[in-house]
């Protein structure tokens, strides 16, 4: 667990992430997690903000690059969580991730990082257990239990001029 002071939290490097989910034919929600490249732990697709893209657009781009996902991204974050990112030189940096819901419409057969990560669909409870970050586990539990992720993604679809 990451324990930080308020000052450390304010100094944390900002990242964006997507919480990919889909509803099955029976109405049950599944969550997709990917492995990180370095530590191979289960995480959501995430990365650094992208110049010229809104945070939710960058989160959708990360989901495409890391997992080949295409869908409806919510424009309002579900929440934030902290984690320590291990850098290639073995140092670590505290990161604060803003998480956006992504209702997955399809998964492509080819995508940029497909040979670098594993992917797996989980039930929300299994996904919350699989991740190491307590803040991310709490977001998964709260967003999918309350239906907030589904509502945010649907609200974004309604606001989109073409319903995308």
From TrEMBL:
GO cellular component, one term: cytoplasm
Example GO molecular function: pyrophosphatase activity
Domain of life from the UniProt record: Bacteria
Domain (Nudix hydrolase): residue spans on this chain: 11-144
Key words of the record: Hydrolase, Magnesium, Metal-binding
Pfam families given in the database record: NUDIX
Cofactor(s), names only, from the UniProt record: Mg(2+)
CDD domains, alphabetized: NUDIX_DIPP2_like_Nudt4
Matching InterPro entries: DDP-like_NUDIX (IPR047198), NUDIX_hydrolase-like_dom_sf (IPR015797), NUDIX_hydrolase_dom (IPR000086)
Record-linked PANTHER family: DIPHOSPHOINOSITOL POLYPHOSPHATE PHOSPHOHYDROLASE, DIPHOSPHOINOSITOL-POLYPHOSPHATE DIPHOSPHATASE
Record-given protein name: NUDIX hydrolase
Organism: Methylobacterium radiodurans
Taxonomic placement: Bacteria, Pseudomonadati, Pseudomonadota, Alphaproteobacteria, Hyphomicrobiales
